[in-house]
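Data availability (excerpt). The following record was deposited with the supplementary files.
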Amino acid sequence: MHSRILFGIGMFLVLALTACALLTPPEKQRKTALDDFMYALRWQRYPEAATYFTSKHRQTFLGQIDKISKDLNVTDVRLKRLDLKDEGRRAEAVLEMDYYLLPSATLKTLKIDQTWIYFEVSDAEANGFLITTPFPEFPEESSRHKGTLPP
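Predicted structure:
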């Protein structure tokens, strides 16, 4: 009897939390997700920022950042453009991230083109707005792979 009551309470909580997520309008979820992603990126909270990528791109993002995280210093992240499509369930975003990579103190800007898509499924892993495009490579990283550094 006791386990039935606990099971009932657990199911109620799951349904209530799912309903709350579904009742939040997609446009508010999009704004919150985009703002939270930019905040996490700006303050170098990369595991938190990674949660906004689909599972297909999450580990790649973390791997890219892991290679340079000790030298990477982010100074600003800003939204330059946002185009809504599919009745607001898809967003094409252009972000700019100002950063420098030690030992250099030269401030550079990385353009980040993203596609955010609204997923409305019961799976908490893929619910709400997620980034469906890979994070761009830092120009310095592509030069390091070739064995030369940019001027």
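Summary of structural features: The chain has five helices and four strands.
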